[in-house]
Inverse folding.
């Protein structure tokens, strides 16, 4: 394996600026690594070899002139949910068959404006609905991590499974991802990478295929905390094309790394001690508490009483919004079309053939909870519960808590084709139990690797912050990263 | 609350997804598992609680009522499975 692909973004950035190697060298090495690994890992749906080389060449010209941007020459993978002009954009769904947008999402446009290079489009759960990357039309992604002494394929988590696997396996320097209920943080935890879901409104949603608009947020997956900070700074912006985009200026997140935690109050919520949670995760959580305490933070026990209701409320709100957002896939304006009979047949056959089983399930649940006679009982009640979940967080923040520490997931990565999860959709949904509260309240959350379980698989911790205080999360996550050390898989692919 | 197969078929019709009889039976079981799971929300006292409308307090952004984009008919139909002269083609809707 090339040494260049092992560099972090921060390291590659400095070495590119010093002209130790060229952006074309770096991109070439990543393309070789992808071509060698993708048959085994299936992280990329499309590799944009020519575009990547062209972009790298342009970066080299700018670097030679000394006019490089913040991400000049850094090769990134892009989740298939982001519209990329003239390049495969299907949300890993068959219904967007051969869709190539004529426009670019705001987040990716920001990255290219800063000089980043696109390597290709990354696999994901179909329409970001899933926690294992197994609902993709393009097949599951394989986690680069394996349990000690085992050659069983494990899932990388989801929905940003391709983003997490590619980042962990050195197939991109970092990746874009999105998070509606945990889709950045859970795969980051399963692959020993760092993933941050910023505050709702921090990254523009324009040009990102919509799943549940009141919950969706873009963020990066990276190999360390500093790289995540560098990527988020470029991805975030105020965008007139997204009415929920914030007007607040984007801080220099990287500058927050190394900031002291002295005097900071870290909340430990009682409700996150779940029944049946593996002892290893409880132990890891205690370690995280000790590390933050050693760094000068004050640890405070807190209560977030409505935690257990976040997941059931999510499984009303998210499908309801999805059923509305996905109404546009009708076989008329883009993507797949199945004909035969009248226009209603066209819609029904196209949607039956184009949507996978999980997407159909969620569209039906959403249609049901929004239908006449059930709206108040389900949707309205869920939105009221959501108010209570947000209020829980507001109460602890107004009591002086600066950030909250929790486990990121209730388990380590599980096997591809896990029979228990396949038999019961709710079992799969429980993967998001610790992350979904954050989306329901619109808060920022970061997952950072904190150690290995007894099988040698990575586990992560989550930090939850006040609205638009991603800086505290980067500072605290960096403390955990320094204590835990960075985690890398042993290459087998 | 739970759903029967007839209700599932009705909902599938509303959602414009063709569902075979076998699929409708399977889907009925799966939807009832999910509906059973969300049932616990009934334990929560929500009296006097406002439903959430926005997670971040913000005023709705407005833009000037002016034409700021357009002239892109060819781009708009570019990904259509069937188009002619910049129109989307569909089966006959009105006799």
């Amino acid at each position: 394996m090339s040494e260049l692909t092992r560099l972090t973004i921060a390291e590659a950035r400095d070495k590119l600026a010093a002209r130790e190697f060229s952006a074309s060298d770096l991109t070439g090495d990543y393309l070789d690594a992808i071509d060698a690994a993708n048959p085994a890992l299936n992280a990329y749906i499309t590799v944009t070899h020519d575009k990547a080389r062209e972009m790298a060449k342009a970066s080299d010209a700018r670097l030679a002139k000394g006019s490089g941007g913040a991400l000049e020459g850094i090769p990134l993978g892009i989740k298939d949910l982001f519209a990329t002009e003239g390049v495969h954009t299907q949300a890993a769904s068959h219904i967007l068959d051969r869709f190539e947008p004529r426009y670019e999402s705001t987040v990716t446009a920001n990255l290219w404006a800063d000089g980043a290079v696109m390597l290709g489009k990354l696999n994901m759960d179909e329409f970001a609905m899933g926690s294992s990357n197994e609902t993709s039309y393009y097949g599951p992604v394989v986690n680069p991590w394996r349990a000690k002494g085992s050659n069983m394929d494990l899932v990388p988590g989801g929905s940003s499974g391709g983003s997490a696997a590619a980042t962990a396996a050195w197939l991109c320097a970092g990746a874009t991802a999105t998070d509606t209920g945990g889709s950045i943080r859970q795969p980051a935890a399963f692959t020993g990478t760092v993933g941050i879901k910023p505050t709702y409104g921090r990254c523009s949603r324009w040009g990102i295929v919509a799943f549940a608009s009141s919950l969706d947020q873009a963020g990066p997956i990276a190999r360390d905390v500093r790289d995540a900070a560098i990527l988020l700074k470029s991805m975030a912006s105020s965008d007139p094309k997204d009415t929920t985009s914030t007007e607040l200026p984007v801080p220099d997140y990287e500058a927050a790394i190394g900031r002291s935690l002295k005097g900071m109050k870290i909340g430990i919520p009682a409700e996150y001690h779940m029944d049946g949670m593996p002892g290893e995760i409880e132990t890891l959580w205690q370690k995280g508490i000790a590390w933050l305490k050693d760094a000068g933070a004050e640890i405070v026990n807190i209560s977030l009483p409505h935690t257990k209701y976040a997941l059931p409320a999510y499984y009303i709100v998210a499908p309801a919004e999805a059923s509305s957002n996905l109404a546009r896939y009708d076989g008329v304006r883009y993507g797949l079309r199945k004909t035969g009979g009248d226009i209603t047949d066209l819609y029904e056959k196209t949607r039956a053939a184009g949507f996978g089983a999980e997407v159909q399930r969620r569209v039906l649940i959403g249609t049901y909870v929004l239908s006449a006679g059930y709206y108040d009982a389900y949707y309205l009640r869920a939105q009221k519960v959501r108010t209570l979940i947000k209020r829980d967080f507001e109460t602890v923040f107004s009591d002086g808590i600066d950030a909250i520490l929790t486990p990121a997931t209730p388990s380590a990565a599980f096997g591809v084709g896990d029979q228990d999860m396949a038999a019961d959709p709710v079992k799969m949904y429980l993967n998001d139990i610790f992350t979904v509260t954050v989306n329901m309240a619109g808060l920022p959350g970061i997952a950072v690797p904190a150690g290995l379980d007894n099988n040698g698989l990575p586990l992560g911790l989550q930090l939850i912050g006040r609205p638009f205080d991603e800086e505290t999360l980067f500072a605290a996550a960096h403390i955990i990263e320094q204590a835990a050390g960075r985690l890398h898989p042993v290459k087998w692919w | 609350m739970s759903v029967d197969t007839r209700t599932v078929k009705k909902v599938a019709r509303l959602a414009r997804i063709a569902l075979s009889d076998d699929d409708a039976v399977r889907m009925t079981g799966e939807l009832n598992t999910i509906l059973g799971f969300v049932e616990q929300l009934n334990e929560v006292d929500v009296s006097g609680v406002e439903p959430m409308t926005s997670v971040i307090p913000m005023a709705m952004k407005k833009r000037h009522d002016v034409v700021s984009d357009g002239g892109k008919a060819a781009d708009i139909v570019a990904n259509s499975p069937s188009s002619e002269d910049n129109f989307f083609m569909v089966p006959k809707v009105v006799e």
About this structure: Residues 89 and 95 of chain B are 16 Å apart (CA to CA). Helices of chain B lie at 5-14, 21-38, 73-77. Chain B touches chain A through 54 residues (CB under 8 Å).
